[in-house]
């Protein structure tokens, strides 16, 4: 990765956070999650402004691609907006890319945050606008949590976006969850989700490595292979977020994950990177996890760089906020992931 990135200004209380829906139209179906998110952000001292089409629904997406893109363009243009948070992920962020004004975005750098399918936009903003963005919480999924955002998620959100100091050591959360409380009948308002004890990081290969952090969610990043938006990960500490599958409450099938990893392998990703971080996979059984480890070892068999599993990245909560392109260290001996550079200006 050889791109000089523009750091956005840090987030301060009293700032306005804009909300966009680049992919799924779930804000329209689950308004109580949006209401929870607004309350959470306002409680933290921020103002909230919704993009014009962010609460719409057009079948499985929020709106037409042109409208979704115009929302993003307008939020970057709006001088009152200090940060932009996505409602949720989805599968169709790639549809908006050809309608984005990358020069406008470059000339108006600000915090942009989201995970899952938002990976597509992170790559595009980094490649075309030289903007440093953040892989982290979305409005509905994390800020919409009942009764409030999980403390670990909020802690690393604040460390990444509100402080000029480096994030420092990323401790593994003591507890985590992938429990689903059905949003359609508001079961998520009956009680908090159950958290289970974490077993800590799982080092598949030992060692030390440092470099800019980069990566994203499969299959979203795979959509960009061979396009002008793909970012060369050479010299990076690469992370992979493994999402849910297409069946409700189930993880991504190992056979499908294998195909996505083979895409990355054919792109030479595993030959170019200096270290690998795997986010905690969504709702994997012990057998699934063992198969996952075998896949990772297969695709990295020619290399001895460190590999760590079960990081708090992506589709299991709580999650960290990762600043793309910022110098990161991983060290099995000290059992740490460490961000050694400030992520905002």
Radius of gyration using CA atoms only: 19 Å
How far apart the termini lie comes to 21 Å
Main beta sheet = 8 strands, mixed
Low-confidence stretches: none
Order of helices and strands: EHHEHEHEHEHHEEEEEEHHEHEEEE
Categorize the overall geometry. globular
**Strand content bin:** 15-25%
The count of DSSP E runs of length 2 or more, i.e. the number of strands, is 16
**Overall mean pLDDT score?**
97
Count of DSSP-assigned helices: 10
Domain module tally = 2
User: CATH homologous superfamily of the largest domain, by name?
Assistant: LD-carboxypeptidase A C-terminal domain-like
Structural class label: alpha/beta
Instruction: Output the strand order for the largest sheet.
Output: 6-16-15-10-11-12-13-9
CATH topology of the largest domain: Glucose Oxidase, domain 1
The CATH class of the largest domain, by name, is Alpha Beta
**CATH architectural arrangement of the largest domain:** 3-Layer(bba) Sandwich
Percent of residues in helices: 25-40%
Please specify the SSE layout and strand pairing.
Layout: E1 16-20, H1 26-29, H2 31-43, E2 47-50, H3 65-77, E3 81-86, H4 102-107, E4 111-114, H5 119-129, E5 134-135, H6 139-143, H7 151-161, E6 168-170, E7 175-176, E8 196-197, E9 202-205, E10 208-217, E11 237-241, H8 254-266, H9 269-272, E12 275-279, H10 286-299, E13 307-311, E14 322-323, E15 327-331, E16 336-339
Parallel strand pairs: 1-2, 1-3, 3-4, 4-5, 10-11, 11-12, 12-13
Antiparallel strand pairs: 5-14, 6-16, 7-8, 9-13, 10-15, 15-16
Helix pairs in contact: 8-10
């Amino acid at each position: 990765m050889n791109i000089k990135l523009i750091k956005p200004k840090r987030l301060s209380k009293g700032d306005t956070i804009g909300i966009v829906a680049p992919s799924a139209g779930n804000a329209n179906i689950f308004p109580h999650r949006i209401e929870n998110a607004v309350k959470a952000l306002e409680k933290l001292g921020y103002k909230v402004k919704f993009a014009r089409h962010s609460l719409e629904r057009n079948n499985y997406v929020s709106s037409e691609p042109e409208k979704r893109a115009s929302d993003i363009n307008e939020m970057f243009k709006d001088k009152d907006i200090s940060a932009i948070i996505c409602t949720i992920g989805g599968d169709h962020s790639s549809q908006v890319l050809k309608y984005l004004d990358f020069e406008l975005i470059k000339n108006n750098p600000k915090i942009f945050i989201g995970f899952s399918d938002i990976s597509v936009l992170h790559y595009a903003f980094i490649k075309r606008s030289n903007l440093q963005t953040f892989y982290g919480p979305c409005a509905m999924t994390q800020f919409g949590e009942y009764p409030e955002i999980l403390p670990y998620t909020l802690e690393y959100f604040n460390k990444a976006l509100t402080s000029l100091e480096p994030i420092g050591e990323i401790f593994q959360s003591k507890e985590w969850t992938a429990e689903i409380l059905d949003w359609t009948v508001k079961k998520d308002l009956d009680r908090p989700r159950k958290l289970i004890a974490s077993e800590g990081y799982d080092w598949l290969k030992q060692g030390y490595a440092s470099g800019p952090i980069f990566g994203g969610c499969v299959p979203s990043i795979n959509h960009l292979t061979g396009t002008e938006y793909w970012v060369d990960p050479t010299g990076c500490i690469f992370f992979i977020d493994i999402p849910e599958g297409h069946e409700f409450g189930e993880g991504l099938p190992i056979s499908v994950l294998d195909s996505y990893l083979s895409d990355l392998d054919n792109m030479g990703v595993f030959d170019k990177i200096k270290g690998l971080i795997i986010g905690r996979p969504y709702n994997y059984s012990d057998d699934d996890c063992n198969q996952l480890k075998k896949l990772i070892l297969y695709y990295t068999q020619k290399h001895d760089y460190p590999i760590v599993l079960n990081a708090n990245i992506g589709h299991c909560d709580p999650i960290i906020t990762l600043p793309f392109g910022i110098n990161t260290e991983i060290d099995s001996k000290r059992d740490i992931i460490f961000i050694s550079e400030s992520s905002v200006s």
